[in-house]
Amino acid sequence: MIPQNDIIMHSSKQTSTWQQQLADVVTSAEQLAQELELPAAYLQAAQQASQDFAIRVPRAFLERITKGDVNDPLLRQIWPLAQENSPPPAGFVLDPLGEISSNKTPGIIHKYHGRVLLITNGSCAVHCRYCFRRHFPYGDNALSSQQWLEALDYIKQRPEINEVILSGGDPLTNNDKRLFGLIKAIGEIPHITRLRIHTRLPIVIPARITDELVDNLTQSRLKIVVVVHSNHANEIDSEVAACLKKLYRAGIHVLNQAVLLKDINDDLTSQVNLSEALFDCHVLPYYLHLLDPVVGAHHFEVKQSDAQNLMLALQGHLPGFLVPKLVREVDGRPSKTTIDTPITPISSL
Predict the structure, then answer these.
(1) In the chain, where are the structural domains located?
(2) Cβ proximity of 249 and 281 under 8 Å
(3) Is there a contact between 2 and 40 (Cβ–Cβ < 8 Å)?
(4) 254-301, pLDDT tens digit by residue?
(5) What is the rounded distance in angstroms from the CA atom of residue 132 to the CA atom of residue 119?
(6) For residues 330 and 7, what is the distance between their CA atoms, to the nearest angstrom?
(7) CA distance 267 to 275
(8) Which CATH code fits 108-338?
């Protein structure tokens, strides 16, 4: 095991506010290995891989990982591996979804009819190693006050847009003043009827779902949809469940999108347990994404044929409303591509 030193062990319970929890994160492979009691042999590769894409793990998430278990499904999402630095297979690129070409003006990604994505910041509470935006030029989308006005004007000038999606980074890492001001400004655009918030904060730092946040969301004239990101039932502890139920009781629609990840959730039991755990919290499974082919994440890839067989099995174990859509996002297509499930199992390619 990694030898213990003077690093202080913390608990997320010691930091009561979400802002403190957002600041009090593990950012080094050495500290992560020490606190999770991982074998020393794992450290060097993690140190090297994290030079390109930094480690960031909130303690509220860290506490759900089983110490000493290198196969823990939560650990595998945040622990850097040597494969991240190996030459990527054909088709794995820096911008797998073509977002840079759709970055019409700073802060705006406009790919699909009727909706536009607003990059609210470049920070996340946790750095997931499979992140499709790990190479995104966030520095070019850090907006000045004038650029925020220009981004909102882009939306105002296009009446065919009726939905704004707040993304990032993670939009809920913004402080309340900035977030509430942005929601108010969007609500003042007459042709916008829906606001969608894509966030992993309710899963990794559930304390972010404060009464003030919920009150502000419910006061907006916009129809609010919160899309959370959970990949495994082990992520949903009692605190996460409580915050998701708080959103539900406030009348806010909550959906989940997950990514299918090799050796993490690519089995029937994991997917059934995730859907059931989500529904217990009044969250509907929405999308199950095939991995976006981004450089540094190829070791997470599950073959499409295996994913289709998994979905076929899932349909036999769950009611239809608990089965997420299997999708892939393809650069240049006008929408996400739904991957059909065969009538009979197909053989692996």
Answers:
(1) 12-85, 108-338
(2) no
(3) yes
(4) 999 999 999 999 999 999 999 999 999 999 999 999 998 888 899 999
(5) 14
(6) 44
(7) 13
(8) 3.20.20.70
